[in-house]
């Protein structure tokens, strides 16, 4: 299979497999006091340090491991109520991940005041639009650094610094899941209280994420029980996932510039070939200004899910829409927020690249997409 759906899951970096297995051998429950337990505990703390270096933590906060970014985002959105801020007034955007938007909907159903910023024409979040919804009583501002569907990058650091003046009591949260691995992400420079991360978006295993909590935020535990994660989150840690997260972070720290350049090269090659061979497509992403690996392509008259299925039969993975409980793809809420009709949103796919393809992989995948598009258009 050719993974042109890296924003969904990057896949375990092949270079990590042997080292990961070696580390896990002989490691047991990290909470146990025997040697095998303490070995596991040491590996978890090493992973925490590796991730901290990658995100430029500089000792300003603590990384708490979770079951994934969805849990981290839910925890962040719930933070004002956990702290006991009383009436909740939150600001976010219409293009956030569902793991932010759905918890906000639940807060709204319980009486919270939720305001969602509309994106600019290119999908970024305008700082002035955020500030227009903030006041002294705002308790939470939660925004995405890099959009997972169209790759736009919002100025979270700038927004956060200004929000701290307009809304001094607001908890500031950045969903940095799609930014990590595609740009330099500095917890200090983003100037937020909370930041969500995910292991499998950068080459670690699925089922592990993290919430980074700034030291000056007195955030109560999210899961109660044992004393794991310094009592922030009870439950036996996912040792394999955490270790893979740390190893992927270590690799990223050493190779980030090279990785970003490789992903951008793949994306630009894909764009040039696609526009040359299928000139009727509309490109919604720019790897030179947005995330270096993400290209959203609108194909008038071709259903995105039909294209996904046709490409899957050829061994090429891309994505379209958002899967709902029925398994029927819904039109992307991000594209709808940009003003696209449901029909046009359903006719859009996302192609997102890894950095380490073997020779010929990008060419083969691009050819498959171009040929399939021409065939589907000819059938209209």
What labels describe this entry?
globular; three-stranded antiparallel β-sheet; seven-stranded mixed β-sheet; 380 residues; alpha/beta; 40% helix
In short:
The protein has 380 residues and is an alpha/beta fold.
Describe what you observe in this structure.
This protein has 380 residues and is α/β, with parallel strands linked by helices. Helices cover 40% and strands 15% of the residues. The protein contains 12 helices and 14 strands. A 7-stranded mixed β-sheet has the order 2-8-7-6-5-3-4, sandwiched between helices. A 3-stranded antiparallel β-sheet has the order 9-10-14. A two-stranded parallel ribbon has the order 1-11. Helix 3 runs parallel beside helix 4. The model has no long low-confidence stretch (mean pLDDT 95).
- Give the termini distance in whole angstroms: 28 Å
How many whole angstroms does the radius of gyration measure?
Answer: 21 Å
Please describe the biggest sheet, giving its number of strands, its sense, and whether it closes into a barrel: 7 strands, mixed
List unreliable stretches of 5+ residues: none
Tell me the β content.
15-25%
Number of helices: 12
Overall 3D shape = globular
* Secondary-structure element pattern, one letter each: EHHEHEHEHEHEHEEHEEHEEEHHEH
Structural class call reads alpha/beta
Extended strand count: 14
- What's the helical proportion of residues? 25-40%
With strands numbered from the N-terminus, the spatial order across the biggest sheet is: 2-8-7-6-5-3-4
**What does the average pLDDT come to?**
95
